[in-house]
Amino acid sequence: MDPVNALICMAAAAWIGQIALGWQQINRFNQAIGTLSKSGQICIGRSAGRFKPRIILALAVSNEGRITGNFVMKGLTVFARPYSENALTGKTLSELHPETLFPGNKALREALTLAISNKRC
In total, how many domains does the chain have? Predict the structure, then answer.
C-alpha cells in the first residue's frame, strides 16, 4: 500500500472512530436526561465557547420549584460524562445564586444562569 492510500485509510478510520465516540456520548446524555426527567421538569443551560471546554447543566425541578436532581457534562472531547453537582440538589430556584455557588468557574456559572432563566422552568 502506498503512503497516500495509507493516509486516506488512517483518516477514514479516525473519522469513523469520532462518529462512534460521538454517538456514545449522545447516548450517555440521553440516558442521563431520561433518568432526570423522572424527577421533574427539565431545565438545561450551556456555556459558550469555541475552543474551551463547554459545560451542559441540566436541572430537574419539582412543581414547587425545588431542584430534585441535576447533572453536569463538562469537557472538550467526546469522553465527557455526566456527573451530579451536590451543591444544587434540594435548593429552590430562587435560592440559586451562580456567583456564590461557583465563584471560580465562569462556564458553570453561565450554564446555571441560562438554566434558571429558562422560561419553561
Answer: 1
